[in-house]
Amino acid sequence: MTRQLDITDVAIAYGSAPVVRGLSLSLDKGAIGCLLGPSGCGKTSLLRAIAGFEPVTEGEIRLAGTIVSRPGETLAPEARNVGMVFQDFALFPHLSAFDNIAFGLRRWSAAERRERVGELLDLIGLAGAADAFPHELSGGQQQRVALARAMAPRPRILLLDEPFSNIDTELREQLAGEVRAVLKRDAVTAILVTHDQFEAFAIADIVGVMAEGRLRQWDDPYGLYHRPADRFVADFIGEGAMIAGKVVDRAHVETEIGVISGGLPPSLVSAGTQLSVLLRPDDIIHDESSPEQFPVVARAFRGSQYLYTLRLPSGAEIYCRAHCHHDHEPGEPIGVRLDVRHLTVFAEG
Amino acid sequence: MTDRMVETTAPPIAVFRGGWHNAAVIAVALVLSLPVLVVLGHVFVPSDDVWRHLVETVLADYVINTLLLMVGVAVGTFIGGVGCAWLASMCSFPGRGIFEWALLLPMALPAYIIAYTYTGMLDFAGPVQGGLRVVFGWGYGDYWFPEIRSLGGAVIMLSLVLYPYVYLLARAAFLNQSICVLDVSRTLGNGPWRTFLTVALPLARPAIVAGMSLALMETIADYGTVQYFGVPTFTTGIFRTWYGLNNAAAASQLSAVLLVFVIALIALERGSRARARFHHTTERHQDIRRIELSGWKAAAAFLFCFFAVFFGFLLPAGQLAWWSFVVAGEQIDARFAGLVWHSLQLGVIAAFLSVLLALFLGYGRRLARSRGVRAAVHLAGMGYAVPGTVIAVGVIIPFAWLDNTVDAFLRANFGISTGLILSGTLAALVFAYLVRFLAVSLQTVNAGLDRIRPSLDEAGRSLGLHPGEVVRRIHVPILKGSLLTAFLLVFVDVLKELPATLILRPFNFNTLAVRAYEMASEERLADAGPAALAIVLAGILPVILLSRSITKTRGTRP
Question: How much is the pTM?
Fold first, then answer.
C-alpha cells in the first residue's frame, strides 16, 4: 500500500486563534478516512487545509508524497488535483447535471469527457437525468451529482465536508452505504468530515476522533469503540458508563459489581491503584439468576431490546441491554452479570 | 512542484486585489452621497431674508399639503394594494390568474402622465363634462363637477399608480404565511373574513408598511403631478425658490426639511423589512388552497381588481393611445426622433454606469470584512428615497462651485475662461441619475451575487479553475440575468424621471419626459400624447419582468 495523504504536526490558525494543533495522520491509497468530532473541533478546517483553502501555520501536508502545504507556502487549490464535495453541494445552477460533472474535465477530449461523465452517471444511477438542472433534482440526487463532479477528474484525494447533513435523517445511512460502494468501485482515496458516528462507521475504513483542535485517536471503528484512547473518545463513541475500580493484580480490577479480568496498561498495574473502568451496555448481561441485583432508574425501548439504566450502591449508573421480553418497571431490582471482553481503564480523575 | 506554490488565502474570489479596493468603495459611496450631504450642510448657511419669508408665508402650506398628500396616498394604496393582494393571491374567482400580473400594470405610468390623461378626460372641455352638458342641456356654471386639479385629485392619481408597491409586498407576505396558521384560525372557529382581519393582516403588517413606505417615498418625490394640479408642496416649493427667488441656500433648506420626511420613511421601511424577514418560517411551500368565491362575492372581487387595472392603466393608456393617434401626423417627426434619441442616450449611459458601479460596490460588499465598507455601500443605496428635486439641488451647487473655482483659477493664472464645464452638461444629469437610481441596480446585482455562495467559488477552484476563470466561467453566467435586469430597470426609471431632468438638463436638451411636461404645461394635452405613450410603453418592460418573476415557480435557473 502506498501513502496517499500524509499530515505531519499540522497547526491551523485564524488570526491568532489556533483551531488545529499538532495533528498528524496518514491515509493509504484507496482507503476511506473520516474525521469525526463535535462542531468547532477543527475537522472542517483540516479538510479545507488539505484542499488548499486554508494555509497551515505549522507542519506539512503531502499528497502522494509531494508537499502541498507548509508554513508560508500553500499550493493553490486548482493545482492540487483534489476533489471536494461541499455541505451545500455547490452545484453550478446554470449548468445541467451532465455539464456539472464535466466541469473539471475541460482539458479532456470531447469523446473521453462524454465517456467519463456517462460512466459516472451510470455509477450514481442518474443516467436518465443528464440534462436536468440542479433545482430539478432531489436533495439525494444533487448530492450524488456533486459526488460525481468531484470524482470526475480522478482526483488524488476526494474530500467530503458533512456530505449528508442536508439529507433527511432516514436516508443518511442508506446513502452513506451507497457512497461507500461508489468510492470503492472507483478505488477512490477519500476523507470525509462528520459529527455523526453512525455515518462515520457506515462509510469509513478508518476514523479519527477530534476535539479542541487535536486528533484524539486514529483507528478503525472497532478499535474506537472497544479500545478508546482516552475518556473523551470513550464518551463520544457509543454508550457507556464509568465506574470506580481498584487494581488487584496486573490482570484483575475490583469494582462494586465484581472483579473484572483483562490486560491493564503498564502504567496502571501496581496493586491498589484507583482507576475508572469503562462499561459498555454489552459488557453487562441481564441474568435473572444473578445474585447481583440493582434497581432500574430508567428504561428506553429500542425495538428488539430495552436499554436499562441501573443504579449501583455507590450512586454510579450503568447501562444494560435486555431482550424486550424482559420488561421491568423503574424501581424494580434486576439481576446482572459481567461479561467484559475488552477491559478499558483510565487513570482516576 | 514547490515553484508552482503561491501564497494565497483562498476565496471569496477577489476581482480587485489589494486593500485599495476598500478605500475605493468608500470613496465612491461618499461621492454618491455628496448631494444629500451638500443639502444637509446648507442648513447652516444664511439665506438672507428668503428663509424667514418662506416660513412666514408658504412653509405651513407645504407641510400641510405634503402631509395631507401622504395620508391620502397611504389610505388609497392600503385599500387598493392590500385588497387586491388578498383577492388575487388567496381567493379564487374568474380572471384571478390574469389580475395576478395585470394589477402591476399601473406601475408603467408615471404619476404626472396619468394626471395629464385624467385632466384631459375630466376638465371642462373634456369628453365627460361635454357629454353631460349635451345629455342634460346644461351650460357653463349650471352644474357642480369635482375639480380634478386639486389635492384630492393628486391623491387619487398617485394612489392609482402607486398601489402596486403595496400589492407586491402584501402578496408576497400572504403567500409566505404558513398555510397552517390560517388553518389553525379556521379550526378555532374564525370565518375567512375574521381570519383575514385577525391573523393574515397582522402577520403581513411589516410587509404592508414597507410597501406603503415605498409608495410614500414616491409621493413626496413627485413633482409633475402636484405642479400640474397647482398643489403647493415641498417639491414645487423647492422649484419656486430655486427659479423664482433664485436662492440656492433657501432651496437647500427646504430640501433639508423634506429630507426629514425621507429619513422617517427610510427608517419605517428598513424596520418593517427587517421584521418581515422573520415570516419566512419554512422553505417548503404548500400549495395554497384559495377561498372559492361565487355569486355576488365573485363579481365584487372581479370588479374591485378590474377597477384598479382599468382606472390605473387601461383607461389612461387608452387615452394616450387615442391622443397619439390623433396628433401622430404633426407630432411624430424629426424633432420627436430627436427626443427619443436623447432619452435613449441618457437612459443607456446612466443604466450602463449604474450597473458598473453596482458591480464594483457589490463585489466590495462581498469581499469586505469591515463594517465601514458595508455601511458605505448601504449609504450609496439610499438615493432611491431622495426626491429628484433635492438631488438636483444637491448636484448643481457643488458642480457650479467647482466650475467657478476652476474658471477663476484659470482666468487669474492663465487668462483663459473655461465657463461652465460640468454644471450645464450631461455629466451633471447622469451623475444625478446615478445617485437616484443606484439602489435599483445595486439591489439587483447584490441579489445575483448572493446566489453565488462561497462554496461555488471553492468548487470551481477545486475543479482546477484559476480565480479569473472562476469569475468568467461561474460568476458571469450566473450574474448575466441580474445585470440585464438591473440595466433595464435603471433605463426605464431614467426615462420616467422628470424634476431632476428639468433642473439639470443642458440648455435646449429635451427628453420625452420633458416634452410631455412642456406640452401639458401649455395645455396642449393631446400633443403630450406621443411622448407620454413612449414612456409608458418602455415602462411596461419592467412590469413584464416583475410579473414573470412573481408567477414563476421557485427555482435558481437564471
Answer: 0.79
